[in-house]
Write a structure and sequence with these properties.
18 strands, four-stranded antiparallel β-sheet, binds 2-acetamido-2-deoxy-beta-D-glucopyranose, alpha+beta, 327 residues
Length: 327
């Protein structure tokens, strides 16, 4: 019998390293390995009926065989294994023992955790903005300790639930939404709505924690401040552009409307000479008039026919009205 106990003590001692395993020192209790947002933390409670002064050593095992050290001689009741995790998809187990001086307890093992399927996905962050009688919902994924939600899961969908504030029983759910932005448009104007969002993934056992409830009022139906502002801006821009063009090119515009060009001297002279001739007398009876179109070319501008010249001249009154006749 005593030989048997001796062998047991030797074996445990060999397993536990330099310290002597003691049945007097009990194991930590309630050892649990948990994961929130892809972290990995081993937690435990102190052994029953022990005083203070205990320290703990925590180890972990992944798919790779053999335990590795997580935390040495810690007085804390938890050990953060996140920095030591190798794979998003790994399967982990932890164990912990208590130590008091040279004495140490047996190991107490934890549950298994497969990170991607077991991690508790935290709540998304939801923000709302109203635009007329619609609400735009923007969803931010929870931040993961390692990697990101969309890197870990191939398929991420949002279950968006909304209701008129105070009328939870009339809630509408939009499940399986893949975009993290959407517009709720079947809403009443000037009404407060509340929105809550939950994340579902392809491999995790549970949906995420639901987001906190966010509420926002819709505005008036007609009210579209964004569109109104855009239209006002465009009108202003066009007006300013026209004003600038008018100022910069004023000279050219003025010259276009009021040409300075004189008639060719010989033509003017001939006109003056014939001022008193009978061609200017009022005509008693309709006489057939023979006109040839003449063309006056000045710079980059062409005035065709007497009629056009006359029209242009009348608005500036610098030129006498001109009628050119060739017989
Ligand atoms: C942990 O504590 C034991 C016993 O006090 C000691 O022998 C060992 O060296 C310590 N280990 C570390 C890493 O501090
Ligand atoms: C979406 O959320 C609502 C409210 O929380 C719930 O009743 C419904 O079952 C969920 N649907 C899915 C597909 O998760």
């Amino acid at each position: 019998m005593s030989t048997y106990i001796y062998v047991v003590v030797l074996t445990v001692s060999a397993l536990g390293g330099s310290t002597v395993a003691s049945e007097l020192l009990r194991r930590p209790t309630n050892v649990r390995l948990t994961s929130h947002n892809m972290n990995l933390v081993l937690r435990w409670d102190p052994p029953e009926g022990t005083a203070g002064g205990l320290v703990y050593t925590a180890m972990y095992k992944s798919s790779v065989p053999g335990y590795r050290i997580g935390c040495w001689n810690t007085s804390s009741l938890e050990c953060d294994l996140t920095p030591l995790t190798i794979s998003h998809f790994g399967n982990y187990t932890g164990r912990v023992r208590a130590q008091l001086g040279e004495e140490s307890s047996n190991w107490a093992e934890s549950n298994h955790v497969t990170l991607d399927t077991d991690t508790f996905i935290g709540s998304p962050t939801v923000s709302l903005s109203s635009n007329g009688a619609t609400l735009e919902v923007s969803i931010q994924d929870p931040v993961f300790s390692i990697s990101t939600l969309r890197n870990v899961y191939n398929r991420v969908t949002y279950n968006i639930t909304y209701w008129k504030k105070g009328q939870n029983e009339t809630a509408t759910s939009i499940p399986d939404k893949q975009q993290n932005r959407l517009v709720l448009s079947d809403l009443d104007p000037r009404t407060k709505y509340c929105v809550q969002v939950q994340i579902n993934t392809d491999r995790n056992r549970n949906p995420s924690q639901p987001s906190s409830i966010t509420c926002e009022s819709t505005a008036n139906e007609q009210e579209t401040p964004w569109v109104a502002a855009m239209v006002a801006f465009v009108i202003m821009a066009v007006a300013v552009a026209l004003l600038v063009v008018a100022v910069v090119y004023w000279k050219s515009i003025y010259h276009f409307l009021c040409p300075k060009d004189a008639l060719p001297p010989h033509l003017e002279k001939s006109l003056l000479e014939h001022r008193n001739s009978n061609m200017y007398l009022p005509m008693e009876s309709p006489v057939e008039e023979i006109y040839h179109p003449i063309r006056i070319i000045a710079g980059d501008r062409t005035v065709e026919e007497g009629y056009a010249l006359e029209a242009a001249g009348s608005s500036c009154s610098q030129h006498p009205d001109v009628i050119v006749e060739e017989r």
